[in-house]
Amino acid sequence: MDKKIIDYLNNCTHQETNINKILVSAFLHTNEITKVKNIFISNFIIDSNESKEYEQLLNFVNLYKHPISIEQLLNIFEFVISPEDKKVNGAVFTPLYIREYIITQCLNKYLTFEKKITDVKFGDIACGCGGFFKTIVDIIKLRTDKSYYDIFKDNIFGVDIQYYSIERTKILLILHAIINGEDRTNFDFNLYQGNSLSFNWSLISEIQQNGGFDIIVGNPPYVGASKIDSDTKLLLKKWSVSDSGKSDLYIPFFEIGLENLHHKGILGYITVNTFYKSLNGRSVRNYFSTNKFDLSIIDFGGEQIFKKRSTYTCICIIGKKQTDCINYIKSKSTNIKSITESDYINISYSDLNDVEGWYLVDKRTREIISNIEKNGRPLGKKYEIRNGFATLKNNIYLFTPIKETEEFFFFIKDNKEYKIEKSICRNAIKPNTLKLESEIAKHTEKLIFPYDISIESNDLNKKKLNIIEKKTLKSNYPLTYKYLLNYKKILSERDKGNRDYEEWYAFGRNQALLISGYKLLLPYITNAPCFVYTDDQDLLFYNGYAIFSDLSDDLNILQKILMSKVFWFYITNTSKPYSGNYFSVAKNYIKNFGLFEMTDEEKKFLLNLEDKNDIENFILKKYNLKRKDILF
Question: Which CATH class is domain 84-360?
């Protein structure tokens, strides 16, 4: 999308109607369409008598050297959705080749039941600006002589939470008909404004009489659990796949779609690929496996189809007929048209774990993963794995000194120099800045720590975190108090101002502030094993994890195991992928990694090994694996 076009529209107006008028008029102008019968479209045509708007139109048209296509118009409609609305409805533009593939696959699967394409009822239950409908119309027109009017009336049904999305869908489809020679005074649509979480399709007579949709396609909304408003959270509980835990908004769209299909119907989505591994996907995994749906997944792994969104996706084609297996393949999006049935891995539902997550890999890889997990004790049960602290405003509490005296640290923030009492500061580090232990000193920061730690009942293992009272903070640490006071408003707005803190300068969360000990520091995601040992038992950490132990030798041994190719094989086959061949090493993905038992002699032997090849050989032997097993 040309940035000049978006910038121009944003500078002209922020009102949907005005944007629609410019775009409709520009489309007609650049395509040299001077007369329109359709009453709906006529309402969006800028007349030359409207001097200001007409001047804006001509300036906009000058940005184009060629006629605006329907696909370009769709792209613009998606891009001019306000950032605020995108947060709510999670709309993104789906590329044409993805839409064509999903619809074609659904049709190929569905038409084996001998129903004519002219009679198929298509649904998109989060239709946005109508991209999937435009492609459905093109496919029906290519295969039949059915008119646009009849296709709109008979074949496509949609709902969207935003009124302007429904309006733009109508604009798009009518202009598509007009430019292809079918201009009518009116077109009839089955398009509704509503919330899919509560919309009742059984009240739509055509769908009721058909026994449900024949095919539902689409791109469910990309809204994470943390951004879902309270009203939507209540609606989520209506659906079994999202009635517990922190469900992302896309998850119930599986159930909504499948429940609104008739018994031979097919669902086709491009959607987030985390549901088969994530914690909040447990219920939807159980929903699939309980019903034994005919599920095929094309997983794009760490590839980002939507360049403006940090979202990792897959295509799911799902039939309601029962089957024992899931069909799975990992592929680049550009290769999807060359995929054949024999390319898929067939995985039995009975071999999958709905609670821990699905390992969608070939049989031999599943066997290796199972053997690793059953070897010894799981990492998460043998060691404590903790997430770092969370102030919710790290840039206020953390700093790197530019100089220091015996009593004070000095640092620069917002072009101003501050000094802070040393006695209120703790050392802290961000694990994803580290590769080697020797880098710890260089990357250690200072953390303003407005807490006291007390011992309960003379038990050194029972510690209590106490916020420093405002009076004490002000008298004992006046420079720190004065500094924090400058940012009181910002700190008070954490958690959208909805949470009551002990004091306004307290951290957002109290996690990981009391735990101490030897530790292995690790990032959230990495493209290679990265576990850095530190013997600084009081070093705090954030934006990462740490594995704790009271015994330094145990952690040094563990470090060698976790830095091995066996561990990385396990991660690349069980964890969540990111772009650039990065993978998550979050607690949920490493906790089940099995740690083999060792004698004292073996521990000492491994501890003293230095040669990487010798270390790998020892670990392979303990897991009863060969190099070829883990694809060296």
Answer: alpha beta
